[in-house]
Design goal:
This protein has about 190 residues and is an alpha+beta fold. It has one domain: Thiol Ester Dehydrase, Chain A (Roll), CATH 3.10.129. Helix content is about 30%, strand content about 30%. β4 and β5 form a beta hairpin. The protein binds coenzyme A. It comes from Oceanisphaera profunda. GO terms for molecular function: long-chain fatty acyl-CoA hydrolase activity. InterPro entries: Cytosol_ACT, HOTDOG_ACOT, HotDog_dom_sf, Thioestr_dom.
Length: about 190
């Protein structure tokens, strides 16, 4: 049981709408991915702050795959919800949709998960957050999936760190074979 109490998922859910104006466009006329990422970070913070009633930082962002381009003139809607909380971390799930009024279409742009960690503003140390009061089957499922993603994230990071630490230059050169790169230097590398 959390000694910071419990709060419902709904209490911190956030919806953010933003019109995609011409200054958001890249040279190809589509909206910069970075604009969307910035809005996602903003809504993740708002959602996490609403849950923990305090300060938090973005600890990690899961992969963000843009499934559809966003056009200037589209209305972007971001939905954010706390899926899972640990001791000081909160996983915020974010879904982004873009609406084109002329065509009357709504497209799913992307979905991602942000891990926010509540900090004491003075000490900058992680602090305990309220638990989640789950109210239906969807919330239970999202909580368990968030818990699983936390475990997989750690394992994945550990695996990459281990591979990187063990990688010798000789093995690295073998991995280069058939890749789209070249190394014109003279080599005297130990295998
Ligand atoms: C995130 C941060 C506070 C973690 O600090 P730490 O001393 O490693 O904290 P701990 O190891 O005690 O972990 C605290 C919590 O953060 C989580 N966490 C730590 N690093 C994480 C990461 N990279 N990804 C996801 N979660 C992470 C832990 O799982 C733990 O969760 P729990 O309390 O719910 O179990 C610290 O790395 C930090 O301040 N990073 C910079 C964040 C920042 O400035 N973001 C904005 C960038 S502009």
């Amino acid at each position: 049981m959390s000694d910071a109490g419990f709060r419902t998922v709904k209490a911190s859910q956030v919806i953010l709408k933003e019109l995609m104006v011409p200054s958001y466009a890249n040279f190809g006329g589509k909206v910069h991915g970075g604009v969307i990422l910035s809005l996602m970070d903003k809504i993740a913070y708002t959602c996490a702050a609403s849950h923990c009633k305090g300060y938090s930082v973005t600890a990690s962002v899961d992969s963000v795959d843009f499934m559809n381009p966003v056009e200037v003139g589209d209305l972007l809607t971001l939905y954010a919800s706390v899926n899972y909380v640990g001791s000081s971390s909160m996983e915020v799930g974010i879904k982004v949709e873009s609406e084109n009024f002329r065509e009357g279409t709504v497209k799913h742009t992307n979905t991602s998960y942000f891990t926010m960690v509540a900090l004491n503003e003075e000490t900058r140390k992680p602090v305990k957050v309220a638990g989640l009061l789950l109210e239906d089957e969807d919330e239970i499922r999202r909580f368990v999936m968030g818990k699983l993603r936390k475990k997989l994230r750690r394992a994945h990071q550990q695996e990459i760190d281990d591979i990187g630490a063990a990688l010798k230059i000789g093995q690295a050169m073998v991995e280069l074979e058939g890749e789209n790169c070249c190394y014109p230097g003279v080599m005297h590398l130990p295998l």
